[in-house]
Design goal:
Elements: E1 3-13, E2 31-46, H1 51-54, E3 58-63, E4 69-77, E5 80-86, H2 94-99, H3 101-104, E6 110-125, E7 131-144, E8 151-161, H4 168-179, E9 183-184, H5 190-197, H6 211-215, H7 239-244, H8 253-277, H9 282-299, H10 306-341, H11 352-364, H12 367-376, H13 378-392, H14 404-428, H15 433-460, H16 462-500, H17 506-535
Antiparallel strand pairs: 1-5, 1-8, 1-9, 2-3, 2-6, 3-4, 4-5, 6-7, 7-8
Length: 544
């Protein structure tokens, strides 16, 4: 993977006669090193409908300065972005292309804007000479390269925090700049401003005169004409952006279900690059989004046409399984290491940690490469296209036009009944493999019931919120039980391998016994947690 840097910066606009103030008066600044001007030349790439810009993502090829090369920036929070760099080359590096694939899919990336900047660099140093931040005064010239050739120019100040710096330092710099009449920029990035200011003007076609007006024309009105609106960034929004922008509040059952569907699809698309980068918990979150979406398709079959959603659900199941190759081993490794770390040294007999490490490495070897290969594959790309098409033309059934209360309550109730039947069936079995399998089935039903309550929450309010919370507790108990089942199977394998190698299997047996105790405790806990969930079941709701 290319180099990654956490970029924390703020941008400001110079207004009127405002000048850069004495920065040595900023708390913590001992000296300012004026390094002079440098010339930067950057070409920004995007799809023709600006999908990356709509998501706040920037991709550029820049020459000049100390970090010439390709830069891909993902938003993290306001004023914070992750910048992923790659060496300068004529074509987009494959690693960076993979990171934007979920957004652009098969659509070509084209040059959209060229920014040429003259940057006057000032480094703010602390008492020990260490850099605290870099301040640049940028004279920017922007030229549209696609969708017209309009140009614009402006001056801005950019303050970027030094690596591992305290973000509070930027507050001190900002206070000093504000006193000098310098205000925060209205645009979050140079690209966003360039796109807004060079957006092609939209000509409004004249209205066709009606027959009535043609028959009896009226005198021109003295009413003041409304000036044309200034082009805004919204005009640049892609279909994906428009799908995420707040629209009218959901009113029908279809509105509420689609809002939940849209949320999961947005997560799947956004988490694709996070999984490729190996960010913590990204695989788990992406897998959960696929499960939630598939569960919603199955739960709301009266709202969404299953002849359309069933094939999509099958592909989501495939994707979740592929992601699970890496995730399941990750969870198991963490569980076994935690168990082992909690043991007194006197109970760890033999090369236990070494064997666990070797076993884990062997099982995970290639799993990460396989995950990335799946995301790069044609099947995943086709799934992304299908999800995009589904949002553009949702397969709504007649029931989708009805009020949400009845449809969402009925669906939540059916899922609750299914869960109740599976828990009752599981508890009828004596402790052992049959009960373990039945409790695993109940866990799947608990997830589906919880997701149904989550989807209904905006429409049903507190009852749905309370039900989802209680069902999450049921899912947690059943999940820990299933993790214990998987861990016991792994511990038995490790014990057999240790014994065959002439090592003591005592520690593995001890950990196996702890997992058995954990499973028994979860089975005793389940009836009480389930009883609370039953009290919170969604039974009725208003029809509005």
């Amino acid at each position: 993977m290319a180099d990654v840097k956490r970029e924390i910066e703020r941008k400001y606009e110079t207004t009127g006669d405002a000048r850069l103030p004495d920065l040595t008066r900023v708390a913590g600044v001992a000296a300012v090193d004026h390094r002079g001007a440098i010339e930067l030349d950057a070409v920004y790439y995007d799809t023709e409908d600006l999908r990356l810009a709509a998501a706040g993502i920037t991709l550029r090829r820049r020459t000049g300065g100390a970090d010439a090369g390709w830069h891909l920036k993902f938003p993290v929070a306001s004023g914070i972005r992750d910048e992923i760099g790659a060496p300068l080359s004529d074509t987009l590096p494959p690693d960076l292309a993979g990171l934007v694939r979920s957004r652009v899919r098969d659509t070509a990336l084209v040059p959209v804007v060229r920014l040429r900047s003259t940057r006057d660099v000032h480094v703010l140093n602390g008492p020990d000479g260490e850099p605290l931040a870099e301040l640049g005064v940028d004279e920017v010239r922007a030229q549209r390269l696609h969708g017209g050739n309009r140009a614009t120019a402006w001056t801005e100040i950019e303050v970027e925090l030094a690596d591992d710096g305290d973000p509070a330092f930027l507050d001190a710099v900002e206070r000093r700049l504000r006193k000098a009449g310098i205000r925060p920029s209205a645009s979050h990035s140079k690209l966003a401003r360039a796109l807004a200011e060079t957006s092609p003007k939209k000509k409004t076609p004249p209205k066709k005169p009606s027959a009535k007006k043609e028959a009896s024309p009226k005198k021109p009105s003295a009413k003041k004409k409304t000036p044309p609106k200034k082009p805004s960034a919204k005009m640049e929004a892609s279909p994906e952006k428009r799908q995420r922008e707040p629209g009218p509040p959901p009113r029908t059952a279809g509105d509420h279900v689609l809002a939940y569907v849209r949320e999961q699809i947005t997560d799947i698309v956004a988490l694709d690059p996070a999984v490729r980068r190996g960010l913590p918990d990204s695989v788990h979150r992406m897998r959960v989004a696929t499960r939630r979406l598939r569960s919603t398709f199955r739960t709301y079959r009266k709202v969404l046409d299953r002849t359309v959603t069933d094939p999509v659900g099958a592909e989501l199941k495939w994707l979740a399984a592929e992601l699970g190759v890496d995730r399941d081993q990750e969870v198991l490794d963490a569980r076994l290491r935690t168990r082992l770390d909690a043991l007194p040294r006197t109970l760890v007999l033999g090369p236990v940690r070494a064997r666990l490490r070797i076993w884990s490495t062997a099982r995970r070897s290639g799993s990460r490469r396989r995950t990335v290969a799946v995301l790069d594959g044609a099947r995943h790309l086709a799934l992304l296209e299908t999800l995009h098409a589904l949002l553009a033309d949702p397969p709504l059934l007649p029931a989708a036009a009805g009020p949400p209360g009845k449809a969402l309550t009925r669906a939540a109730h059916k899922n609750h009944e299914r869960l109740a039947a599976r828990i009752a069936r599981a508890l009828e079995h004596p402790p052992g493999p049959d009960r373990d399998l039945a409790l695993h089935d109940a866990r799947k039903a608990a997830k589906r019931a919880r997701y149904a309550a989550e989807a209904a929450r905006p429409a049903l309010g507190k009852p749905a919120r309370k039900s989802a919370k209680r069902l999450k507790a049921v899912q947690s108990v059943l999940g820990d039980h299933q993790d214990s089942v998987v861990a016991r199977d792994a511990l038995r394998t490790l014990a057999v391998q240790a014994h065959a190698a002439g090592e003591s299997s005592f520690t593995w047996g001890l950990l196996h016994g702890q997992e058995e105790a954990t499973a028994a405790a979860r089975e005793r806990e389940l009836p009480g947690v389930w009883a609370k969930a039953c009290k919170a079941e969604i039974r009725s709701a208003s029809g509005g």
